[in-house]
Amino acid sequence: MQVFYSTKMYTLAVNVLGADLQKCLHPLVHFITTCLQPGFLASCPYFGGEVFVTGGLGALLADMPQANASASCKGPGANKPCCFCDIHKTSIADIPVDWRTVWTAKNRNVVQVTMDQMKDMSATQRSQTQTESGILYQPENPVYHPNLHFDPIIQVQCGY
To answer: Is the model more confident about 51 or about 2?
Structure first.
């Protein structure tokens, strides 16, 4: 048996006027979770037979509003506006040089639990929770698909 490793990355550019990134991702996430992540055998004459192919979503690059929306981050209007941490906006100017001592990371599980809790809240309670936590309620966000191996908090990047 021969084993070959390949590190190829392909970029998919989506630039549709008036469309948001999440709507464009729905069919792609379905393809990734049903075909690429589980993997499949493909005929490859170059290697003299069949090869096992697998893949996934590595990162998303978007402008600030789309990056925040994709990571389910409320953004500047929240008390905790950063999509990566839980630092309150009034404390941002007072962050010590060794900021790691006060930094608490958000992660996919925290966001998912908060969104699950917001599901049964009234609109007023949900709005208040979004402002307090910085987590935007989006139950249909495709990057939080339960079968997608992707952490939007880390893998959504803001491009300029």
So the answer is: 51
